[in-house]
Structures are given as C-alpha cells and as structure tokens.
Amino acid sequence: MSSFSMAERRLYLCIGLRPDLEDTVRAAVAGGVDVVQLREKVAEAAPIMRAAERLKEICARAGVPFFVNDRVDLAYAVGADGVHLGQGDIPPATAREMLGDDVLIGRSTHAPQELLAALSEPVDYLSAGPVEATPTKPGRQGTGLDYLRFATARSTLPVFVTGGVTPDRVALLVDAGASHFVVVRYVADAPDPEKAARALRTAIDREIRVP
To answer: Distance between CA atoms of 157 and 149, rounded to whole angstroms?
Structure first.
C-alpha cells in the first residue's frame, strides 16, 4: 500500500514537457501544490522518461506524490508513485497487475456511467470533469456542475475536479461538493507559478476550512 493518502491531497498540478519544467514544478510545490502529474500527449517515450526521472526526485524531496499520465510502462520504469489513466487507456485492473499494490492509480471520469464503473475498479482516486471546456482537453465539452455534484455525492473515493480551477471559482466548486482540485494553466502558465499556486491553495484551504 502506498504511503500517500490521496484523501489528504488538495491541489494537483498536471504539466507537460517544457523548457522550464523543473523550475515550474519546484515553484508550484513551494506554493502549495501537493500532487504532481507529468501529462505529455505528444512526445516520444525517451524525453518523457527523462523528465519523469527528474520530477520524481523533486517531488520525493518535497514529500509530494508524483504521477505519470497514461504510460504505465514509464511509471514503472521511473518508480513513480502513481499513474493516471483515462477512459481510453489500459484498464486499471491490468495496470494494478503490472504495478502492484504500492502504486497509486487514478481514473478520469466524464459522465455518471463512467464514475459508477470506476468505483468497482482497483483505483485510489477519480477525477471528474472538465467542468468547463478547456484547451487541455480538445474536443471535450464541459461536464458542468451537475456532474461534479453527482460524482462527489456518489463516490467512495477522493474526487478531483478538473476544468476552470481558479481562486475565484473555488467557492462555487466547493458548493458543488469539491474538496480536491486539479490545476493546469492557472499555475503552469502563470508568470509566477509559486504565487499562483499559493493564491489557489489559500482559496481552497479557506473554503474547505483546512486547519
């Protein structure tokens, strides 16, 4: 079993390959990000693996779980803390057989039937969304707040909301049941990622009354 509990994590950064990747992740973690995922949809395996090895070290020093998106093979190769699987990836049961019980597995869901199916899979947390359409999910319509309400009410696992997570929307998302948040552009594209992460984490902690 993993030493990390996803129920205790609040702010999850997804980020792709970029020249300032390591500096951005360090800054985001310093600002309050407590989960990091390398999400790269275009590059070949070798550069993803090299970046994953570096991010794993950064996250390990900070006590932050590090995930690889989609690629179970690369998650295994670098000793990632977890892998996040979309609906089109290999089944979580297969990933669990390959990775064992000490690696965390996340599962994306976008509709009620996907969420209900995921609850019977060997996963540790779910994501729900994107609540709003986002360039990071091209071609996918926003799920809206009703799906977030459904997911957080029905799930027995932590549910991380995706899409449009900014400080001024945190209260709205919390009202719909959210207590775990995924951020991409608001932090990754900010001129000062640490400041952006801190603003978002402050809003989250205030709304969900984290001591």
So the answer is: 14
Specify the pLDDT at position 139.
Answer: 61
The Cα angle at residue 186 between residues 25 and 148, in degrees rounded to 5: 110
Residue 97, φ and ψ in degrees, nearest 5: -65, -35
Close Cβ partners of 99 (under 8 Å, ≥ 6 residues apart): 72, 75, 76, 83, 105
Give the integer Cα–Cα distance in Å for 71 and 74: 5
> Does 150 map to a domain?
yes
- What's the pLDDT band for 183 if we cut at 50, 70, 90? very high
Helix and strand counts by DSSP (H, E) for the chain: 9, 8
Domain that holds residue 177: 7-207
pLDDT range class, residue 3, cuts 50, 70, 90: confident
Phi, psi dihedral angles at 43 (to 5 degrees): -65, 160
CATH number of the domain within which 148 lies = 3.20.20.70
Identify whether the C-beta of residue 71 lies closer than 8 Å to the C-beta of residue 83.
yes
Instruction: State pTM to two decimals.
Output: 0.94
Number of separate domains in the chain = 1
pLDDT (mean) for 76-84? 98
